[in-house]
Amino acid sequence: MPEFNQQLYKTSLDVLLSANVPKDVAEVASRVVASDDAKLPNLGRTPVDQEFIDKAIQHYWAGQGDANS
């Protein structure tokens, strides 16, 4: 089991929330990223973990498009 990287969690959460990613999605995605294990396939992420990462990315990029309008 990888160590939880608290600083990475906080940084990820701050960035996602500032990009208007919904809080529940941002929290889960940040928890997933902070628990990634580079020694495991797919960083040790489950399919559900990856779904939250994908949702966070979609919201993040949608927010970036709004910022450029």
Nutshell version of this structure?
The chain has helices at 6-18, 23-34, 47-67. With 69 residues, the chain is an all-alpha fold.
Write up what this structure looks like.
With 69 residues, the chain is an all-alpha fold. The protein has one domain. It contains 3 helices and no strands. Helix 1 runs antiparallel to helix 2 and helix 2 crosses helix 3. The longest helix has 21 residues. It is globular. The model has no long low-confidence stretch (mean pLDDT 92).
What's the arrangement of secondary structure elements?
Layout: H1 6-18, H2 23-34, H3 47-67
Helix pairs in contact: 1-2, 2-3
Q: Give the helix level as a range of percent.
A: 55-70%
- Ranges where pLDDT stays below 50 over 5 or more residues in a row are none
Give me the count of strands.
0
How far is it from the N-terminal to the C-terminal residue, by CA?
43 Å
Main beta sheet: none
Round the Cα radius of gyration to an integer and report it.
12 Å
Shape: globular
* Relative strand content: under 5%
Q: List the secondary-structure elements in sequence, H or E.
A: HHH
Provide the number of structural domains.
1
Number of helices: 3
Average per-residue pLDDT, rounded, comes to 92
List the keywords.
0% strand; 69 residues; 67% helix; mainly alpha; globular
